[in-house]
């Protein structure tokens, strides 16, 4: 009598590169659908952050995520974005206009060598009612919409959302009102041991995303990836878990979850790095 047979599920990479065009198209369509759902779910929770240029017009600096932490509505972003407050008043995209950021942040401490060597690089602030009154139509991500620590990292599809400078240069003169353009980039997790070692991090508190010269647009066409300057502080969404057989076969819809915020691109490793939300929140709670 023979024992139970084991079925080995093909990897995402092997399916995406399969000789059968029908399989390739089905996987590509599933990836696009998961990315689109991630963007649709979280797009109003991801906001641009601006300073004011010398000529008085908005100057796009980075991105942020609106979150609800234990019933407190907060703004979460990269600490190096908030550092710009030393030189300019900062504003965040509200319902219809830019809202002055009048909040007190708890942020990671920059090393003596500078913020460049802060490899956690996050800041969180509760928002006062004066700001919230101008953000009533926006989404605040709740704890149930945040991803737990993930295993099987290489099978997770992530979507980074934010407002890169290259897409948000044009501002309306006069009033603090802008036409921000949200950008998304989707790729799979790809842990980089050499990068983690050079940054002196374990990898457990970060998300490592494959970032190549080319990406895919909303139709799946191959296009040049946009440089992520300005994406810093934006959301990294766990769009789909392709380690789940039912998701990979299209029998179960993916459940997008907020996993991290973008902090840096390491071109030499072709990696977009994010700090995990489940690493940030315990530190923030301990500081309250």
UniProtKB/TrEMBL annotation:
It comes from the Bacteria. InterPro entries: Peptidase_S1_PA, Peptidase_S1_PA_chymotrypsin. This is Trypsin-like peptidase domain-containing protein. It comes from Sphingomonas guangdongensis.
